[in-house]
Amino acid sequence: MLKYIKSGMLIALLPAFFTGCKHNELVVPDARESYRPAGDFVKNNYDLQLFNAALEYTGLATELNGEGPFTLFAPNNNAFNELGITRISDFQRLNKDSLKLAMQYHILNRRLPLTDMPTNGVDVRYMNLAGREVYLTLASMDPKSPGFALNNLFVNGSFAVKKNVVLSNGILNVMDKVIKYIPGSVQQFLAAKPEYSVYVAALKQSGLWEQLSGAGPFTIFAPDNAALERQGITMETLSTYNAEKYVTARLFGMYILPGKNLFLTDFIALNTIYGTPQLQAKIANDNFIYRLTATKNLSQVTPSEFSLAYQDPENPALGSQGTVYGNTSRKNDNLTDNGIVHYLPDLVIKPKVALKK
Amino acid sequence: MTKINYLLAICALIWSFSSCSKVEYTKVDKPAYLRVFNDFNTKIGVENKDEQKPFMCMLIDPQFDKDGVPVDAAIKGDYLDQRASYAPPYPSHIGSSTSKRNPEYPGKENVPAGPVLNGFDLSSWAQIPSGKHRIVFYYRPMNDIPFFSLEPAIRKNVVVDTTIELGVEEVYTMHVLQTDFKTKSRGLILRKENFHLLPLSDSMVYVNFYNYSAEGFWSADKSEKFDNFEDGLLRFGIRDDINIWMSLCKPGGWTTIPGYKFAYLGQMKRSIGNGVAPYYSFPLFADTASNRITTDIWQRFSLLVPGLDPEKIPYGDRDVNADGQYGLLALYGNGTRQSFERGGLFLPSMIVNIHSGTYNPRSFATVNTIEVINGTAYLTTIQRRYPKPIY
């Protein structure tokens, strides 16, 4: 009886030998296969269309499909629109070499994911493909509530609207502003801009001009010709300017902040990190105090807005006076070799406040 | 049956061989005991945003490559963060923390800790080989990358580089701190403690005071300092010469214990030196109404410039800026802020209340150090061993 059962069981096992032999080609999906190299990724994103056009025009696109590693701070279309570049053909009008340098400025020759950036680091320098340094600020969290991560990333005054996109050869971040680096000193920067010609003449006349070619760093809020004209300061009236009558360091000098390199977004980051959103200090060679702060709506991604005001030490109760706001993003955060230049739409200290007593 | 016995015997034999492993205990010969604090606490803001943040790595006897970059060290104390306001008597950070940031060395580091020395629990001290050592503190970025895995370029940023000599079985407390507020110079204090050598009674609470503030801190403009209300009257610093007055109060208010209202303790001088300050004491059961098992009194220290009478202070206890003439420390419960004492800086009480034996809680006397550094104060508590709780 046992014999029959045994052979019966063996027969029952027999089909198992045949059915178990089917051999399917099993391919385990490679997690990295879906990641594209930087050049292709930029090309396939509508919001990075203009950045891609700039890369292709300057020949950087093929390099970005190479081995890498790269970290990209890619300005989106809005960022280029701000500068008046709205169509791909607009790049044809630009100098290829300087555009290439400007685009290389947005790319680091390393892989820098968010986790490798120093927590709450302010203006940490990283070398880019242009051989210069970008100033990276990561407002990770309020130190008093470390469990609540914010991770707001700023690079040279631009804000990362999208962070830490993984590429096969690096990392991509999308920025809301084109990083503006202009080789040369702040002096050369101002001299090259016709809209600041009256301010430049005023600085030359009052002996404040020469220092601007020095080591710095300087942060300059430069009033343009229209702003000065509103207060009656033009090339013609400057020639009759009486240095005996005015405190020049206050009237023209207050817009030069020596020893500071401040992007407007630094205030937003420092507010998170140290809770100090305002800079208050004495105007160089004067007893008046200037107050400077800046804000930015990070959820609606509005431009950074600064406010510059003065305080009269003899009347502290009056608080901030002559406050000027500025949010002309395309004219702010101009980095040069020895400082940063922002555009000031109006004078903070009017000529009558700067009169000598 | 004998077969089974043989089998069992063989099994036992195999098991006895295989389970043998020699445990190599880390042992430090002729140790010194070291505890390190990072005392940097000055303000970094828009004005000085490019200044280095006081986040450090301590290397003892480092080795360098040909470029002068440290590549290894005999002892490494990484992620050394600004110290916490309370340095507890045993390394309690280990249990509850998930962060790598270390408020002190050894703190969370897994190193041989100090023994119980003359009754004092030194588990917050690390054992370090005695003798001469080169000790270097480096600034490091605030991330979780271990120091030696950082890029070489950012491993060169020295805070302090010096040589120290540690004696056998001596207890040291080391501070790395800013010595001058204007020049931003940095320095090191190596304090050879003597509490374990003094005949201190276990029914008295002891405390000593140091002022390790940077030179010129209190007189600097207040815009250069943190305006932290939790530091109370002390927030903009205190003058170099200060009288210390102690009051012992009942919880919930200022009802003082008879005989302990503004008791004069002594003077505190600002000094960045290695000297040990004298200990002041009060009885653990100063409150005669207590049951002599547990007591809930809190300690209130008024720090006043010489010439000011604590009974007639020209400043209110809610004043913000007392021009460095008045500071107030409230050592209350577990250090939680109490609304009735607005101008006080709250620290935990120096009396340890804990379940011991059949009593829950039972009060124990401790030996304490209060260090006033710039606009704040820190409490270090050292405790003796106490009997285990019986449930």
UniProtKB/TrEMBL annotation, chain A:
Residues 35-179, 183-348 form the FAS1 domain. It holds the Pfam family Fasciclin. PROSITE patterns: FAS1 (PS50213), PROKAR_LIPOPROTEIN (PS51257). Coiled coil: none annotated. GO terms for cellular component: extracellular space. It comes from the Bacteria. PANTHER family: FI19380P1 (PTHR10900:SF77), PERIOSTIN-RELATED (PTHR10900). This is Fasciclin domain-containing protein. It comes from Chitinophaga silvatica. The lineage of its organism: Bacteria, Pseudomonadati, Bacteroidota, Chitinophagia, Chitinophagales.
TrEMBL record, chain B:
Residues 1-21 form the signal peptide. The keyword Signal applies. This is Uncharacterized protein. It comes from the Bacteria. Residues 86-110 are annotated as: Disordered. Keywords: Signal.
